[in-house]
Amino acid sequence: MNTAALATRLTGARIGAQPILHAIELHLAPGRWVAVVGPNGAGKSTLLRVLAGLLPGDGQVWLQGRPLADWPARARAAQLAWLGQAEGGADDLLTEDVAMLGRLPHRPWLAPPDAADHAAVEQALHATQAGELRGRRLGELSGGERQRVLLARALAVQAQV
User: Fold this and answer.
1) Is the distance from CB of 78 to CB of 33 less than 8 angstroms?
2) Tens digits of per-residue pLDDT, 72-124?
3) Is pLDDT at 1 greater than 50 in this prediction?
4) What is the C-alpha to C-alpha distance for residues 49 and 61, in angstroms, rounded to an integer?
5) Beta strands in 41-98 (DSSP E)
C-alpha cells in the first residue's frame, strides 16, 4: 500500500443499521485527479467519509502507506483535507478567517498565523477566485460564493490528499 496516496480495502460500511458499501478496494496514486461517479444514493459520499476517517468502515484505510487509524489527528488533518457537499461554517466569520481555519493543523495551539499561513490563505483565495470576498461574512454570501470560500479553506491546508 505504500505507493498509494490513499488506499482502502473495505468489506463494507453502514450508516446506522443500513449497509451502504460492499467489498471496495481502491488505490489512489499521488498527484492524480479522481472522480467518484454514480447515481444518487449509491454511497459516493459515504465512501469519501470513510476514506477521510469521518465514518467507520469494516476494513482498512491507508494514508500515504500508513493505516489511517495510526495517524494522530493533527498530522492527519495536515495531510488530508476534506470538504463535504453540505459543510457548514460560522456565518459571522469573515471569509479570510474561514480560509485561515485550514491552517490550524500547521500551527501550535492558540499561535497566531505566520507569514506562511497568510501566503497559503492568499494562494487559496486566489485559486478559488474568492479574494474579492475577503471583507464579507460567510452568512452574507451566495451558495456558490460560500462554497468557493469553503474550498479555499480546504486548499489552504496544503494537504497531500
Assistant:
1) no
2) 999 999 999 999 887 777 899 999 999 999 999 999 989 999 999 999 999 99
3) no
4) 11
5) 58-63, 66-67
Buried b (16+ CB within 10 A) or exposed e, 3-30: ebbbbbbbeebeeeeeebbeebeeeeee
* Grid cell in block for residue 59: 476494513
φ/ψ of 155, rounded to 5, equals: -70, -35
Q: How far apart are CA 53 and CA 43, in angstroms?
A: 15
Question: Average pLDDT, stretch 8-33?
Answer: 89
What is residue 120's three-state secondary structure? helix
Q: Which three cell numbers stand for residue 119?
A: 501566503
User: Which helix (H) or strand (E) covers residue 7, if one does?
Assistant: strand 6-15
